[in-house]
Design a protein that fits this description.
Helices cover 0% and strands 61% of the residues. The chain is an all-beta fold and 140 residues long. InterPro entries: MipA.
Amino acid sequence: MSYAQDEGAAFHVAAGVATEPAYVGSSHYVAQPVYDAGGSYRNATWGTFELGVLQGARWQLPLSSPLGVALLMAYDAGRDERIRTLGGHNTQLRGMGDLGGALEAGAELSYQFAPARVYVKGMQALRSRDYGDEALGHTA
């Protein structure tokens, strides 16, 4: 079985609407616009470099086995206590304060077995964040 893929560049643009919780842990669901744009470059020597609006930056190391290792960088936009929705604003978190955004770095380990891939990913915020009076540290 060969795990090599063609070299070269690829680009994508996507848009749609998704239904999701208004915030993590919410039982109230809202429709949100979803958009993405990105590109990738694959090289046999250096691996695959990807950059996208939703996923951030990714460098998949060039391994010739079903095992995969990737280095990741992304931005966590945080959360406002007043959440914008297509129908206006959700104010269920009023008084809880905003959670600021942070740049995150991480790694991903994966195993490819046709036609699926399983992976585990870990991310770490690169700066300390506070939520109200509580220091969250470098949590992602």
